[in-house]
């Protein structure tokens, strides 16, 4: 089991134990059964939005827009990923990953990020370790111009203006990304890789 699976299992066990200890086992059972339907409805509503944007990303790839995105992001990628400057495939994957994250498509960005990580892991001498960390940070704290997944969640919850959170999302994601990248570069200076020593 992964760490996330352990955390979820511990939370579920704690909820059941808490219900038993407080004598509210009936409420715990009712909540578990009633929320199953909500979970299925949420998955169905999210699937539509994710399929739409994933399809648009595939169309963009077939139309050559991803190559243009790679060219657009190349100066930024060259600064953030210095070991990948000559690897066009890795740069294209990272550019598509960044584009998906800008659109708020975390689920569409995940396979692109995994492909980029796999490409980086093929570099000789473990030279991609810092680049891998940077990519993970970019995925975790990416700026979202269009928070599509969050908007879909708000729409499913009955919001009349699901995109009204856009200014707050932009501000929060920009601050978190700046702080995370600052931490990455600070740690890179404080704890340089062995190959740089």
From TrEMBL:
InterPro entries: Gate_dom. Residues 44-148 form the Nucleoside transporter/FeoB GTPase Gate domain. Coiled coil: none annotated. The chain crosses the membrane at residues 39-60, 132-153, 165-191. Signal peptide: none annotated. Pfam families: Gate (PF07670). It comes from the Bacteria. The keyword Membrane applies. Keywords: Membrane, Transmembrane, Transmembrane helix. The keyword Nuclease does not apply. This is Spore maturation protein A. The lineage of its organism: Bacteria, Bacillati, Bacillota, Clostridia, Eubacteriales.
């Amino acid at each position: 089991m992964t760490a996330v699976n352990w955390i979820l299992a511990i939370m579920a066990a704690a909820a059941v134990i808490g219900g038993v200890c407080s004598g509210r086992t009936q409420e715990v059972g009712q909540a578990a059964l009633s929320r199953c339907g909500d979970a299925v409805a949420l998955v169905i509503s999210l699937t539509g939005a994710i399929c739409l944007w994933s399809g648009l990303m595939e169309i963009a790839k077939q139309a050559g827009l991803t190559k243009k995105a790679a060219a657009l992001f190349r100066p930024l990628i060259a600064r953030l990923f210095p070991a990948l400057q000559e690897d066009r495939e890795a740069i294209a994957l990272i550019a598509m990953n960044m584009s998906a994250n800008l659109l708020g498509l975390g689920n569409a960005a995940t396979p692109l990020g995994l492909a980029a990580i796999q490409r980086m892991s093929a570099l000789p001498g473990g030279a991609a370790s810092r680049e891998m960390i940077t990519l993970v940070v970019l995925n975790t704290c990416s700026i979202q111009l269009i928070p599509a997944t969050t908007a879909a969640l708000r729409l499913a919850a009955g919001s009349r203006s699901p995109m009204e959170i856009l200014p707050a999302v932009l501000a929060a994601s920009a601050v978190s990304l700046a702080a995370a990248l600052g931490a990455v570069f600070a740690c890179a200076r404080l704890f340089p890789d062995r190959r740089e020593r």
